[in-house]
Design a protein that fits this description.
single chain; 10 strands; six-stranded mixed beta sheet; two-stranded antiparallel sheet
Length: 235
């Protein structure tokens, strides 16, 4: 969902379509899940379950549509190891299919000591770099990617994620007022684009209505009231 100026109905539909897709694919699940921050979350988003060609291709379509609608400018794409690698690869293929052909690169966790060597694979890092990942919990992966990009002499310009949980980050074991996304925007000065947000998930659950979905909505809403922050998804 894009939050630039007036509300955009097309982007709202894109976010709802994505939430529906993630639920139907079993990637977005409801229950009780422990987060990295130690919270008990009533929902869990596991992008690793986009685990076949059809799901991954559809996911790339959502990323590409959200990015092209956001107006964010970038010269290349970077996929942080490990989940970011297939995401970056499939998204650049989809962007090229839509007429926006850009190079991409990714990093290894361990340096290769033979062949081309090093930790970077793909196109040389240069210009304004877009980082693609699944979610942003503490911003740690984003900071690691930023350091790699800057070390190569390029500019870490923006981050694209699938779902913005819109919840408070933790620092030294304590909740803080801002989310990881807000930290990346305001402290690191980068643009962030999310296909959908927690607000979009709540809207989806409220529109489904009745029975199990109402129960999920109540639990997710209570979680947001306790841990949530207010923010848009692309800016």
């Amino acid at each position: 969902m894009v939050n630039v100026g007036a509300p955009n109905p097309e982007q709202g539909r894109l976010a709802q379509d994505f939430v529906r897709f993630a639920v139907e694919a079993g990637v977005l699940r409801f229950g009780e899940f422990k987060t990295k921050a130690g919270r008990l979350s009533p929902y869990f988003f596991n992008a690793g379950l986009f685990d076949d060609g059809d799901k991954l291709g559809r996911l790339a379509e959502f990323y590409a549509k959200a990015l092209l609608a956001s107006g964010i400018e970038f010269d290349m794409v970077f996929g942080p190891a490990y989940k970011g690698i297939p995401l970056a690869a499939t998204v650049v293929v989809e962007l090229a299919r839509r007429g926006r052909n850009v190079p991409f690169a990714y990093n290894r966790k361990e340096a290769k000591d033979h062949g081309e060597g090093g930790t970077l694979v793909g196109a040389p890092l240069q210009g304004r770099v877009l980082i693609i990942d699944d979610v942003m919990s503490a911003g740690t992966a984003a900071r690691e990617s930023i350091a790699i990009i800057r070390a190569a002499g390029a500019v870490p310009h923006a981050v694209a994620i699938a779902l913005d949980r819109q919840e408070k980050a933790t620092e030294n074991g304590q909740d803080v007022a801002h989310s990881a996304v807000q930290y990346v925007r305001h402290q690191l000065g980068m643009q962030v684009c999310a296909i959908a947000t927690l607000a979009d998930l709540l809207l989806y659950l409220s529109e489904k209505g009745g029975g199990e979905m109402s129960a999920h909505h109540a639990r997710v809403l209570a979680y947001r009231q306790r841990y949530g922050v207010n923010q848009g998804s692309c800016s």
